[in-house]
Each structure stands twice: as C-alpha cells, then as structure tokens.
Amino acid sequence: TQLLEQSPQFLSIQEGENLTVYCNSSSVFSSLQWYRQEPGEGPVLLVTVVTGGEVKKLKRLTFQFGDARKDSSLHITAAQPGDTGLYLCAGPRREYGNKLVFGAGTILRVKS
Amino acid sequence: KAGVTQTPRYLIKTRGQQVTLSCSPISGHRSVSWYQQTPGQGLQFLFEYFSETQRNKGNFPGRFSGRQFSNSRSEMNVSTLELGDSALYLCASSLGSSGGETQYFGPGTRLLVL
Lengths: 112, 114
Known about the structure:
The complex is a heterodimer.
Chain A: E1 5-7, E2 10-14, E3 19-24, E4 32-37, E5 44-49, E6 55-58, E7 61-65, E8 71-76, E9 85-93, E10 99-102, E11 106-111
Parallel strand pairs in A: 2-11
Antiparallel strand pairs in A: 1-3, 3-8, 4-5, 4-9, 6-7, 7-8, 9-10, 9-11
Chain B: E1 5-7, E2 10-13, E3 19-24, E4 31-38, E5 42-50, E6 53-57, E7 64-68, E8 74-78, E9 87-94, E10 104-105, E11 109-113
Parallel strand pairs in B: 2-11
Antiparallel strand pairs in B: 1-3, 3-8, 4-5, 4-9, 5-6, 7-8, 9-10, 9-11
C-alpha cells in the first residue's frame, strides 16, 4: 500500500480543459512536493507546500496543501500539450531520515 | 551549472550478473540519493550518501549497495541481478542531508534484466 495515494492514475484531456490531480494520505506530512517527469528524464520539482491550507500558484498551476497536512491537490487551468507528463507528489518520512516517499503518480496526456 | 549526470543511460544484463551505475551530482552538492522507479511500485528510496557515508537506507535487500567518493560522485551496485530489478534508477543530489533541501534528479539509468 502506497503511503501517498494519487488519483486519477491516468488522465487524457483536450487542450484548454481544466483538471485536478489529488494526493492523499492517512499520515501527516511536514511538507509535500509536486514533481513533473517527462519521458526519458528525471522528476523536476514544481513546488513545495509546507503550511496547512497553503495555496501556491505557478502560472496555470495551482497547488493546495490540506488543512490537516494529509493531502494535496494540483489544479491545471487551460491545459496545454506541454503539460503532458507524469505528475508525482512526494513527502519526507522520518523513518528514512526525512528522505522522500513518492506517490505512484498521475500520467497526464493533453491532446491538441 | 551542470545538472546531475548518470551513466550509462541504458543497460541490458542477464540474471545473475552484477551491475554498477554511476552518478555525478551538481557541483557543490554533497548528498546523493538513489531511487528505483518501476511501473508497479513507482519511485522508491534506495539509500543516501553524504560525505562518503551512507546516511539512510530504504527497504531493499543487501544485493543493492552503494558508495560515495571524496568528490561526491556516487556509484550504486546491484549483485545477482533478478528479473524484477529491471527499472529506471534515478539519483538525486542536494546540498545537505537534513531532508529539507531540494533534490535535483538526474535523467536515470534504465536497466533491463533478461
């Protein structure tokens, strides 16, 4: 069982549509990070959320950290083909020396 | 500043063989972490090295080992390869080892075990 559950697993949408990806856990995290990974590349950090209830915006991407710091969401407005990729959430775990545990990811495909 | 580099990018081995993967961190970064990425299990933490010492370890068997050199470059070794070891192996570097620093990932080494 994944410590961080991401949904949906796969999303295929048309250019211009909006979408939301979710990252949920039964455990409290001190922070959560969102990464995007493109084929043949390693994950690239998009944002880190630290405070419960925090909302961060990165152009058309809006990230929210739940009040209880157990969940997070990523909302993309007017998706573009360049948004295509694997979106991963991750959080530090004390049992691993605060190294990251990752969700399984959401594969996003934006069709033009 | 050059990013994290990993060599080789692709590797094909057969069961029972061993393999060594290499990672060069961003200049000035002293922490290198290794992850295994598979379609079924996703990204899983293998271990972390900081100043030539293993600091943290994930839940992988002893066949997976690593080391770090004085220039912070790191190698990962997998002995007695199994089919299930086929995966993308990613390394990530960061300035320190407290866990709060941003990790920068390399492009990975894709290992196929036949």
